[in-house]
Amino acid sequence: MQVVNGSPPVTHRTFFILLLISVVFFGIALTILLYYWDLLVGVYKTIFLLFGFLPSIVALCVMLIVWKRKSRDEKSLGVHP
Fold first, then answer.
1. Residue 18 burial by CB count (10 A; 0-12/13-18/19+): exposed, middle or buried?
2. pTM for the complete prediction?
3. Average pLDDT for consecutive 10-residue bins of the chain (81 residues)?
4. Angle, CA of 12, 15 and 19, to the nearest 5°
5. Residue 8, exposed/middle/buried by CB under 10 A (0-12, 13-18, 19+)?
6. Which of 2, 28, 35, 42 has its CB surrounded by the most CB atoms within 10 Å?
C-alpha cells in the first residue's frame, strides 16, 4: 500500500461503509416520517427533519469528499492519465 500525502489511499470498502450508513439512516428517517408524521407536532417536526436526515446527508457529503480525495490520489500516483 502506497501512502500519498501522509494518508493511505481510499479503498472501495470506505465507499461501501459510507453508502451503507447513508442508506440505513435515510431508511430509518423515512420510515419514521411515513408512519409517525401525523403524531409529530410543530417544533418536533423540525427537530425530526433536522436530526432524522442529517446523518444521511453528512455520510453522503463525506463520501463525496472521500471520492474527490481518491481521484486526486489516483492522479498523483499516475493511475489515471
1. buried
2. 0.53
3. 56 77 81 76 76 78 81 67 51
4. 145
5. exposed
6. 28
